């Protein structure tokens, strides 16, 4: 453990100087007086690592370096702020930094989702801090409340909109009635989707965040591989229309739950997929690039956190909050929260996770169709919550919403219903959340 | 400063054992293992101070005492949790505790609003912690984000629904169309209003919370006396109906703003009063006994925090979060946030605070009325944003919404308009927030 005297200057190594890094550098300079008053020490940039120093004429040249390992282990560096992203080579850099006794502030969700145990161990061994508020939901103070404010409570559920790109696309599909492909094109044109949107639209980004949230909420190591993940590429205009006609909307949610089975055994279920939620639910009004996370805890009840989930300035705000916390700890002594994995609950597979389905079908307009469909549900032990039938030109529309059942039972129910002769088309299948059961 | 060895047990003195205290005691016992894992030390109740120990057969008798000063200065006590409320004699008890080197966790908004400087000084002198998350918005993790997560950002505005009783009454008036007095009776009957509802309905409770929020947000000492306060007793069914007809609703808000005048001089304006906000605004959907606080910061942008603002379990959740933080500091060393009053901005009087008014009038149905009314606005330098006129049986209805002007200018404009011969009745006057200007 590196022992440092209380100090009046905390020196920061910045890795990466893109949109977020640039904002962090700007705010560190412009708000220097304010930050010093809050941190109890001046925050000073000791160096900035960028791939090509010659490509950054806008930055003070004497601070720039391409030698990341050299910078993060330099004697005069106290804190490393990592804004490069991706797993390798960042993982090695941060382990080097932590082993050299530097605290780390990072916005790297992919790294945290898969390697937080290793990083926390290195931080512990050196007695330094690891903060990562900006890794989930950008500017929204969310990880600190989960790790600290709710430390005396028992969280049962975390459910959130944590990816702005997919939320923008689904909001736009809902507003215009357009299909997925053309809305994605529009989002790309407007700069709301990356040139390669895979990480967002296929749910990888949200799954990383879900892993981080579940780990903190349930004191259990959850990695991205533990998260059941479905993206939004299969959401159709029909799905959105079906939701709308039922007073619901479609969102890509990350859902982290504590599940207790009949024998009282606890596990956690963590998933990312499109969901129908009622328009009356707090999360339904979260549109465009905004993020929001809904938390349920035994004592606190329902909580919601809302704000900007991405962007240079919002993310920089979260990074600076962490940086002030690290600086305060260096000045006053003390440590930020350590890994909390003492509960070590098992992760429940998706098939055994309780969910509810909405199913919208075109069926033959003949007597006895509902009876046939209902029998399939009964055969799989799935209980029906509501049914709506309506006729239209020779074919009838049938909408079913189920009670809770295991996802596997629901899936095989739908598979078998699709094979019934009387079923002309499965218009929409979607999981349902956020309503009374 | 009291120096303590790292320890495996943190001993808690509980002052008051009503609804919240009872929940805290229950959770300390039931969640003992979990709390110990999170705090790094066992949390143990050292004693419970109640006025009449003989009236609490449900509590362990050996822990009870009526001697508060004796308890809070006892050698084996590490932390004092205060849930009695009110200013005296609690102020003296907590100063005694802090001077004796005990950290303090309190939910006491009235005390914090008026005496935080003195309490923080005592905490600093002893090198101990003062936490008070439960004092504002119950279970909602709000003060920690303001004090810590946003420590690197510049907050420009905090606007919130922080009193559940008044929000319940206004929500019910909006839903039923009933008047204030009868809705208050109903709220009392249902247990949503105290027998003496003054502190809630006259805005004292919200004003204390506003003072605390403004102090933290603007790094400036703001007391309850600095807060302009108007309650909801004058809100009429007509006001609510007028709001509804304009796509707005009425909420009692606390509004804390950073105001920069033409010369670039900064000040803070802090106020509690009924406000019309558009139905599209995030805060408009916060109904019943829920609380929500909306924060704007330079880098983070818009944030909102939502949850239960009162009640035994939710408040206990916030208290326990603080208690875990204090315990961690005792175990690991380090300190919680200290008073941050370095900005020391002046408080702006209400008359000089920029606001916007909505004004609804019955006027004579003759030509030139709008011209006369508009002239009064012009005479006071108040610019009109929108006007709506409609006729009904000999009298006409005129609705005016202004641009921003000082509250004093708006007030004298309304006073003079009320005296015009052509104005039959001032139906509703209310400030407007949360829309584009």
UniProtKB/TrEMBL annotation, chains A, B:
InterPro entries xref list: ACT-like_dom_sf, ACT_dom, Asp/hSer_DH_NAD-bd, HDH, HDH_cat, HDH_CS, NAD(P)-bd_dom_sf
UniProt domain ACT: residue ranges: 358-431
First-tier enzyme category under EC: oxidoreductase
Enzyme Commission number, as recorded: 1.1.1.3
Annotated metabolic or biological route of this protein: Amino-acid biosynthesis; L-methionine biosynthesis via de novo pathway; L-homoserine from L-aspartate: step 3/3; Amino-acid biosynthesis; L-threonine biosynthesis; L-threonine from L-aspartate: step 3/5
GO BP of this protein: methionine biosynthetic process; threonine biosynthetic process
Catalytic activity field: L-homoserine + NADP(+) = L-aspartate 4-semialdehyde + NADPH + H(+); L-homoserine + NAD(+) = L-aspartate 4-semialdehyde + NADH + H(+)
Cleavable signal peptide: none
Protein name: Homoserine dehydrogenase
Organism: Amycolatopsis xylanica
